[in-house]
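Hi support team,

I submitted a single chain yesterday and got back a structure, but I'm not sure I'm reading the token output correctly. Could someone confirm the output below corresponds to the sequence I sent? I've pasted both exactly as they appear in my results page.

Thanks,
R.
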Amino acid sequence: MPAYVIVEIDIVDPAGYEEYKKLAGATVEKYGGKYVVRGGRTEVLEGDWNPKRIVVLQFDSPRHAKDWLNSKEYREPRKMRHRTARANMILLEGI
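Hi R., thanks for writing in. Yes, this is the structure output for that exact sequence:
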């Protein structure tokens, strides 16, 4: 079953976050993931949620997504993300 990692991001260090993006992509690919959404304009259709940036990753399974998140390859980029942005992240199983 496919799995999606959905991340709401508030970038606090734009230059540092650009460096993070350069490193993160290869780690996603290594674990069979792909970017479905990487930023872009958002529009509120209902409610009061107004995210600054959304990223959606697709993996073959929840296990692949968790393996990527906790991998040694993503360890340093993840630390960079924590320094350069505030994030909320969920794992969602798809159909």
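A quick pointer for reading it: The radius of gyration is 13 Å. Let us know if anything else looks off.

Best,
Support desk
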